[in-house]
Amino acid sequence: MRFIVLLFLAFILISLFSGLYYVWKDRGRGDRAVKALTVRVALSIVLFALLMLGYHFGFFTHKL
Fold first, then answer.
1. Domains of the chain: total
2. b vs e for 18-34, b when ≥16 Cβ sit within 10 Å of the residue's Cβ?
3. What is the pLDDT of residues 13-51, one digit of tens each?
4. Cα–Cα distances in angstroms (integers) from residue 16 to residues 5, 41, 47, in the given order
5. Is residue 63 part of a domain?
6. Is residue 35 domain-resident?
7. CA nearest neighbour of 33 among 22, 47, 25, 44
8. Which residues constitute the domain of residue 30?
9. For 3, phi and psi rounded to 5 degrees?
10. For position 2, what pLDDT does the model report?
């Protein structure tokens, strides 16, 4: 499960920086930055849902 979370975080960072690159390159004229940031938001939501399901099914334990 840790590998999946790290993989999602890597994809989220890649999408974030590709959105930054498209904002810089297109100067606000294209829609590639919006698509890249939409992918980032979708990945973040899916990661949050996976973390919640993983906690619910016991893949993660709550330790203080």
1. 1
2. bbeebbeeeeeeeeebe
3. 999 999 889 888 888 787 888 898 999 999 999 999 999
4. 16, 9, 15
5. no
6. yes
7. 22
8. 2-56
9. -65, -40
10. 82
1: Cβ contacts below 8 Å, ≥ 6 apart: 54, 59, 60
Q: Three-state DSSP class for 44?
A: helix
The DSSP code for 59 is S
Distance of CA 36 to the CA centre of its chain: 10
Write down the pTM of the prediction.
Answer: 0.80
Q: What is the rounded CA–CA span in Å between residue 18 and residue 57?
A: 34
In a domain, 64, yes or no: no
Domain annotation covers residue 62: no
Q: From the CA atom positions of the chain, what is the Rg in Å?
A: 15
